[in-house]
Specification:
The chain is an alpha+beta fold. It contains 7 helices and 5 strands, in the order ααααααβββββα. It has a 5-stranded antiparallel β-sheet. Helix 3 crosses helix 5. The radius of gyration is 23 Å and the shape is elongated. It starts with a helix and ends with a helix.
């Protein structure tokens, strides 16, 4: 089946090929169809390097393994999602800057999405890009947990008032301005920790630790980051 037809008929469920039965052999591969190893440096005027090709090869292998495991989200990702994912995979500085230019985003905005991808995956990127509208009851419960003195992190001080948290709720964001911390509820029902950081000419909220299901654990991760 042609690749175009296979993609058009894909229903979101990956079915691996049947295992080869004992005693049968696969037909010999056509030598002209076997891809060569990446051992030749591209021409000097090429818009990519050998490291770029190797990075793309690794990324392709990782996506293939994810598809084989049934994770099909990458089939519907946008060019921006793809650029952020590639940048988060650890590409070189030159390629990183190329990805920034290709998206048209300000460098700090792109870097924030890359950090969100590293800490929270696609859900982390969604949380970083725009506020969400969650269940108010879930946000109220999280706020109550954060404001509970029994959940305060007082491991470094004996001051009884040090653990007092003043939390402001706005959509999916719980902000403790006195601590410089913000906890965002993502579409994955996990809490994504943020801290206020000075970057460039203005301060902003940046992802700072892996997401967790527990808002108190997210706050602790942010304070200790």
């Amino acid at each position: 089946m042609p690749a175009r037809d296979a993609f058009a008929s894909f229903d979101g469920v990956f079915t691996p090929p049947a295992p080869q039965t004992e005693g049968t052999e696969s037909p010999p591969a056509d030598p002209g169809s076997v891809p060569s190893l990446l051992t030749t440096t591209p021409p000097p005027d090429a818009p990519f390097t050998l490291d770029d090709l190797e990075a793309l090869t690794r990324d392709t292998a990782q996506r293939a393994r994810a598809l084989a495991a049934g994770h099909t989200a990458s089939l519907t990702c946008t060019p921006l999602d793809d650029a952020v994912r590639l940048a988060a995979s650890g590409v070189g500085e030159h390629w990183f800057h190329q990805l920034v230019r290709s998206t048209g985003l300000p460098p700090f905005d792109f870097a924030r999405l890359v950090r969100a991808q590293r800490h929270g995956g696609p859900a982390g990127v969604a949380v970083a890009r725009a506020p969400l509208t969650p269940d108010p009851a879930a946000m109220a419960a999280a706020r109550a947990a954060l404001c509970d003195p029994d959940n305060a992190d007082n491991t470094e001080t004996e001051d009884d008032t040090a653990g007092t948290v003043r939390v402001r709720v706005r959509r999916n964001r719980l902000t403790a301005h006195n601590e410089g911390i913000q906890i965002r509820l993502g579409p994955d029902n996990r809490r994504h920790p943020y801290t206020r950081e000075d970057r460039g000419t203005a301060a902003g909220w940046w992802p700072c630790a892996p997401a967790t299901a527990d808002p108190v654990a997210a706050r602790t991760a942010a304070t200790r980051n």
